[in-house]
TrEMBL record:
Family the UniProt entry places it in: Belongs to the disease resistance NB-LRR family.
InterPro entries: Apaf_helical, LRR_dom_sf, LRR_R13L1-DRL21, NB-ARC, P-loop_NTPase, Rx_N, WH-like_DNA-bd_sf, WHD_DRP
Position of the signal peptide: none
Gene Ontology terms for molecular function: ADP binding; ATP binding
Keywords of this entry: ATP-binding, Leucine-rich repeat, Nucleotide-binding, Plant defense, Repeat
Organism: Miscanthus lutarioriparius
Protein's UniProt name: Uncharacterized protein
Sequence ranges assigned to domain R13L1/DRL21-like LRR repeat region in this UniProt record: 742-870
Ranges of residues in domain NB-ARC: 215-388
Amino acid sequence: MGVVETVVDAATGWLVESILGSFFTRQMEAWVQDAGLAEDVENLESEMRNVQMVLAAAEGRTIDNKPLAWSLDELKELLYDAEDVMDELDYYRLQQQIEQGKGCTDPAESSVSSSTPSSFQLVVSWCSRDRKRKRDDDPTHSTMLPHEIKLDISESIKGIVNHLHKLGNSVRKVLQLEISRPVPVAKQGQYVARNTRLTTSVPIEDKVYGRDVERDKIIELLINGKSNDLHVLPIVGIGGVGKTTLARFVYGDQRIKEHFDLRMWVCVSTNFDTMRLTREILEHVCTDRQQFEKITNFNVLQDILLKNIENKRFLLVFDDMWEENDRGGWISLLAPLKHNHVPGCMILATTRRPSVAKMIGTMDPVQVNGLDEKEFWQFFKACAFGNESHEGHPTLQSIGQQIVKSLKGIPLAARSVGALLNINVTYEHWRTVQNKWKSLQEDIDGILPMLKLSYDFLPVHLQQCFKYCSLFPEDYRFNGENLVHAWISQNFVQCQDPTKRLEETGMQYLDNLVDFGFFQKVDSDYVMHDLMHELAQKASLNECAAINGSNSRVIQPSVRHLSIITTAYDKDGHCSIPCDKFQNILENIGFSKKLRTLMVFGRSSIHLLRFLHILCMKSKSLRVVRIYVPHNDVSSTSDLLNPYHLRYLEFIGVFSNTNIRTNLDLKKNIVPSQALTKFYHLQFFNVGVGCIFSVPTSMNNLINLRNIVAHEKVHSEIAGVGKLTALQGIKFKVRIVGEFEIKQLRSMNKLVTLEISQLENVKTKEQASGARLIDKEYLQELSLSWNDISVGLDPCSARRTEDVLEGLQPHENLKSLHISGYSGANLPTWLASNVSVKMLRILHLEKCWEWQILRLEMLPFLRKLKLIRMWKLTEISIPSLEELILIEMPILEKCLGTYGKELTSDLRVMMIKGCPQLNEFTLFQSYFLFQVEQQSWFSSLRKLTICYCPHIINWEILPLGGVRALKELKLVDLHLVRELSVPSLEKLELIKMPSLERCSGLMALPSSLSQEKQEVCLSNLHKLIIHDCPSLMISHPLPPSANIRKISIKGKLSINIDGKSFNIKSNDLSVLDYQILAFHNLRGMRWLDIWNCPNLISISSEGFSQLTGLVSLSIRNCSNLFKPPILLEAASENSSFGNIPTLPSLKHLDISSSGIPGGWLTNMLPHLRSLEKLSLRDCPQIKWLWISQPTEMEGSNSLASAVTLSAEDQILKVPSNILCSLKQLTIYGCVDLEFYGGKRGFGGFTSLEVLDIYDCPKLGPFLASGTKDDDTRNVDVGLLPSSLEVLSLSHLPENLQSHFPKGLTYLRYLSLMDSPYLKCVQLHSCMALEELRILRCEQLGALEGLQFLTSLQRLTISRCQHLGALEGLQFLSCLRSLEIEMNPKLQDQEQGGNQIELLPPSIDRLEISNLTNNVQSGLLPCLPAITKLGIWGSPELTSLQLGYCKALTELSIRHCESLASLQLGYCMELTELEIIDCESLALIEGLQSIPNLMSFIVAASSGLPPWMELLLQQKGTCEIWFRLKRLEIIGDASVLTMSLCKQLTSLQYLDFWGKRMSPMVTLTEEQERALQLLTSLRELHFGGYPNLLLLPADLRSLVSLKSLRIYSCPSISGLPEMPASCDLYVHDCSEELAQRFKEWELRRREMIDDEIYGHVWSKELAQQLEVWELRRMEMIVDEIVNH
């Protein structure tokens, strides 16, 4: 059995004790007596107690007798069977209890309908699939067990009793003869298959002991490599010796960071997959995952990798390598890395195996051995005594030194054994450990025996918990709560203290395992070292098994717990998972019937669901199930699970891709099986907080449910939740319905967290007291909230609210209290005069509108206080706190407390925002004392925020330099502060500080202080925001630190850094050099934008050249940059226009509205070896374009000799190296640009895929071939590259009348615009064309070869007045979208009867203008598949019949002034309807029959349109308005009537868009009242109203409103009252409104910051929030552009 030898351990005895304690109770005894099974159960209990005595007597005796060991294993199996049969009996007991209504708190409230099958019937029906006999009687009304079930259980118990009796006697006899003797432990070579390991480059050690010499040696080897060859340096050592720690130590060293341009860390482990490893390397070098994440071709991935590492010196760490045979794979993996040819590139690899080092190494390996004696002793003391300098306990130190000699300097062993010793620093304990250690000395070469010692000292319950963790993947990040829930579900957690919950005991178990060294805590999660995981696997060999990938070790038949791990296939998609191999493994599991655990890890496992379903059906004893299931399989999976034993059920991935906006009614999609309500033993149900599903009826049958993880709507939909008396957390919404009244909470006394909302539905103190919160002794977190809409000035209502809160008095043990929306004027007595919640540690009060004075000194344990929007609060007194947060209290004047250290010594966070009247604050009363005592007063303060509190500090100097712990500082609107001193910070924000002149760290320090100290002060800065601080002098170049992740400077100079993106704007900046920018701190930047710098004339080339990682450069609106004569002066001083920056990684270059001359670009382009995209827009200083040919010599002087120096400035010469790399070329608005010299055209660009030329009329003639006298000149295809996929041309010249794109076989997109002389386009050879756009080509008469475009999907033709027949259009079977403007010639063709041949039936989107009655009557019936139809600008159209368009989903009709009637017929799929500027429209037939209309856009000028007025009066049309989600109103707001808004009960999006010169000034009173009725509204938009003065005055009643957007409304100066969480966006409005927007946006961001701070959110989640915000702004801008 390897390391864990066979012993009569306490685990089996513990199992017996657990079964006896759990099932053989008085309650069970009484029930089995009634059921007629008392004798059988008594016999079972008797035999189990006999076994218990035998095991107790022999506990700990070593077994070297295989038959005896087998008998002990068999005994354990019988005990498991006994537990199963008793658990099944308990299930029937619970079932009968629920049937009879005894599961309820009040039996009188429970009733079981006789008209529906009982749960007994349903369960018996389920289990009959596996019973041999059928039922003989009907148990519908029986209080006893059905005969068949009773007989089966009786036989099972008797069989177990007989086997226990025989086996117990034989074991007893043999044990009496056995002599205990030690058994040799297994050697290290007995290897257990390892799972894929994950390591990180981020240091996790507080201190690294004794590795300085090895670190320096490795660093020297790495940085001294000068060869162009790629070198590999292996680090070799046994497991646990510290190889990864040493590699991390090297990786994070400053010398390494400075030497290498790129550092990469990849954990290899046993899964040596070249594809996976290449992808992980690409994740380091590619910021855009889209470049490679969908690519499955290994060769393409390597090409991408090669391009991204070109010209970069890199260090690549391969950690934990095991593969020693796949040399070919290793060579293949390194291929692109070897072709980099930059001197000094290195690979550092760690491995346990010398054979691996020999295969991969090009340098002698660094052998890592145990630590030297001195360093190891220090490390051991730190682990065993908690202090490396400990000198006490000489006897213990002597024992420790003896143990240390045996540990061979292995850090992992020291950590494990040290933790074991540390639990009891006494002679007796240490001596016991020492004696036990001696028994392992015979075989000490392996590490597992060392760890086994610690395992042996674990109590039996911790051993069980530890072994169970072997089921999880290696390096898994355990969520503590979920792990404890799984332990509880397996009955591993036994609570001896009746005042403690099982969860508390389980967390104590986990903490104990951390203390023993078996786990490490990382942030809020727990991790297990891979050797500990290996130990858990060996210890649990007979009980637990993991199928990791398709390769799994031999699984013992005694295994009861199984996990399936497919994470290795998650990245590569479902096609890579070998389903057949998994099927073979799963089908051959012979022990599945007795499985107690089935856990699945990896989303790719969803493709094994069919096999997992079979396994679930076979497994009759499952207690824990964790599985990935699509939402439509939730019900079927639930149906397959045996309900008898299940305690833990977790469905993962159910709603992973749900989009709330597009899937507005998720509840209808998810209908769990009714079988879920029969899992009477279920304790933990987890479907994820994002999961919304229809709560099945009788969900309250789950009376053992302790925890439910789901969307809060699921919590609030459980009818009769009061029956779930074991539940520990609930979000309860009070309703005036019996099963949702507040009295449901009466008996739920196990609650730990409780949120009660909609308390306005509780009317009296008696009703509130009925919840009996005062009885809930375990309750730690309580939230009480009233909806804002309930706030009013009615004194009676206020008094009722006060009575309700008084009746909600919680138990005195409460730790956290949150009250929101409370309208009473007085505090409850239990929080004021007669404080009962003195144990309170967290108090959060929000929108308690009427409270004026708050005294909290009587809460001695209060540590966190958060007050938000307490409008009438004027004074608060506070005790000593850790966190103080005061937000938006407009008349707060005083915040008082004990002066001095007593008040502040524990303070960690202080945040005060929006308290403009606060002028008396204890902490800032005396400048002298603050300056002198700040270090002692604020010894723990880490975060300080003061915003919009101008009177809180009346000092000109704010001295914070002594607050050494301070890491985050934000100051807004402190007008008096002139000078600020700060310590070393991580985040600094200074906003609206008009008097601020100096800030330490941003100003040059006195000469007496060293530059080194100054750099230390700034080195930790990650975020710097400075806005509207006009007097602040920043003497240091920005950014001040290479560690900066976000910087925003707004003023005369605007700088913004966000991650890897850098943007700079300034009206005054003239030179961009080292005085402005610290280029050396920008080496990691990938995107640089220099915009709107009209006075910028030069950029430091030397500094620019340091931006070696730059991928994209954009220069816009810099009209004087490098503009002559500045450039001429530079050229005269240094040839070739001075030092041109070298940007080896640059791929995208965008020059727009800039004075940059061609000469500067000519000298820069040869250095841009990676350039793929070049864009020139409005560059007046570039007048000639010279495209080099590969045969020309670079730097040829022929051009220079032909023109003067000033003329050469205007020539852009594209070098030959660009010809093969450039993929996209865009030239816009360069009206004077023309080709220079004999060579012209773009044919030399061999890789060009996109060519876009617009408004460059002088380039066009050079694309034509033929003689000048030839009026039919064509585009010379030799002047265009054959690689083109996208071609867009405009302003083709007069001498080019025919366009013939021959030879462009890859062309997918062709656009021809604004070419009035173009007469013919020949398309015969464009076989690959997918989209064709021809716009504003008035003389165009023919499109020849249209029938050959068999791949064409989109066709747009507009303002081509002479275009006649579109011959061949009917043959385009792939055409899906057509936009066409009907001209007289096309109309004549239609009227001539050719309309059927005109359009192919494949079209599903049609936009057409100038449509007439005759054309539409024959055209539309021929398009049965059309789903989107737009009819615009058709003044002659009078009627429109759409009865044949049955698939139509979107219909838009605009500017059809004569249209009088619209017949929708059978357009039953219509979801979006738009009708604009159709003044004559009086009737829409069939609209009331459309069931799915979601979006409606309508124009109105003076009152409701006639057709709409008629529609509102018709019967049956209200259903249309009830379902409507979006309404867009063009023109004035006359559509917004009370009669309409009363029916818009589901409306979520309302847009107002003004027409040109719209006269609307404000909404009328009726329109404002109508708007208040839209309580479901989420987004409200106003745009394009030049005369609109006022927005709706008050939007606070729109409680669902999340977004208000205002576009192009220049007369609006103020904002309405809005819900505090409403998102606001303002564009193209007045300066006053822009200022209001800035203030609101600042507050909104602060609220987001508060929300992030108020929850334990990860850094990754905070980053995701920032990305989401960025995308949101982009979407808004796109929306503006579209409108």
